[in-house]
Write a structure and sequence with these properties.
Helix content is about 45%, strand content about 15%. The chain is an alpha/beta fold. The protein has one domain: Rossmann fold (3-Layer(aba) Sandwich), CATH 3.40.50. It has a 7-stranded parallel sheet with strand order 3-2-1-4-5-6-9, with helices on both faces. It has a two-stranded parallel sheet with strand order 7-8. Strand 1, helix 1 and strand 2 form a beta-alpha-beta unit. Helix 1 packs across helix 8, helix 3 packs parallel to helix 4 and helix 6 runs antiparallel to helix 7. The longest helix is centred in the middle third of the chain and has 27 residues. About 50% of the residues are buried. The mean pLDDT is about 90.
Length: about 300
């Protein structure tokens, strides 16, 4: 038997679909939730930060009162919590399927294998990688039960360039994001053979104005002192693209059935540069040669 072509039909509308969005408490996750709901999509929102999750749910309900909005506390690195999330979504949305899963949650931190604490390193890796793997593993039966469905996994430009520059170690986050990219690309063929009505997209943002810097400190158990708050504000405010703009690009890509969604001019420029000169991608002057696009490359 010849497998079907590696092509997905566009998703004409999000209206009356059901979407699960992780990392929905802030940043791109919150923007995705708001824009999906505005398009008539019912949403199940997931985050480990309860106050931010509640704020997102309130905003979505106020802006889109005619869709179903549920909120769920879930640490995406924990399979038991994923299974509980699945059961809650089935019950609260009265469904045996979902149409969209956005594996968006992620944190940064602990970049060195040599000098950083192992627990913090593995916490970063497990949120960014296991959160995608476990989410896919848990919800794939509900995606395949839908007439059409999309799996949307957030990688990063650090999923094809494992660096922030020559003076910063960045192994945990980069390793996880490379894993997300490779996993998603491998799923293209797997789904085409075994569930061709389910599409997959891998999202690779550049520097987006989100709260990942501050939120990562909280998830790692740190305190948000004035220094952390100032750092987080600088990261958010210096970004060339807002979370709302990023979410719009992602959703357009999903609707157009794109499997590869680069987000931001910096992502496009870096992607081209790494492809053109992979041998020099980790030379000390590589980032400098690309100009000022890359002052903060963490989505």
């Amino acid at each position: 038997m010849i497998p079907p072509p590696l092509h997905y039909e566009p998703m004409d509308s999000f209206s009356e679909k059901i979407a699960v969005v992780t990392g929905a408490g802030d940043g791109m996750g919150r923007s995705l939730a708001l824009q999906l709901a505005a398009a008539g999509c019912h949403v199940a929102l997931c985050d480990v930060l309860a106050d931010k999750l509640a704020a997102t749910a309130d905003q979505v309900r106020a802006a889109s009162p005619n869709v179903r909005v549920t909120s769920h506390s879930c640490d995406v690195a924990d399979e038991t919590q994923w299974l509980q999330l699945r059961d809650d979504v089935i019950a609260e949305h009265n469904t045996d399927h979902i149409h969209l899963l956005f594996n968006n949650a992620g944190i940064a931190g602990s970049g060195s294998m040599i000098v950083d604490d192992r627990d913090r390193w593995e916490r970063t890796f497990n949120v960014c990688w296991n959160g995608v793997y476990l989410g896919t593993r848990t919800f794939l039966p509900l995606l395949t039960a839908a007439p059409e469905a999309r799996l949307v996994n957030t990688s990063s430009v650090n999923g094809f360039w494992a660096s922030l520059g020559p003076d910063v170690s960045h192994t945990a986050y980069s390793a996880a994001k490379f894993a997300v990219k490779g996993f998603s690309e491998a799923l293209i063929t797997d789904l085409a053979i075994n569930a061709p009505h389910v599409g997959v997209s891998v999202v690779m943002p550049g520097h987006i104005g989100t709260g990942i810097a501050e939120n990562s400190v909280v998830v790692h158990g740190g305190e948000t002192d004035p220094g952390v708050t100032e750092m987080a504000a600088t990261f958010r405010n210096s970004a060339p693209m807002t979370a709302d703009e990023a979410a719009a690009i992602i959703l357009q890509g999903v609707q157009e059935a794109k499997w590869r969604i680069l987000v931001g001019e910096d992502a496009h420029v870096l992607d081209m540069a790494v492809r053109a000169d992979p041998e020099d991608a980790y030379q000390p002057d590589f980032r400098e040669r690309l100009g000022n696009h890359f002052d903060g490359l963490v989505d």
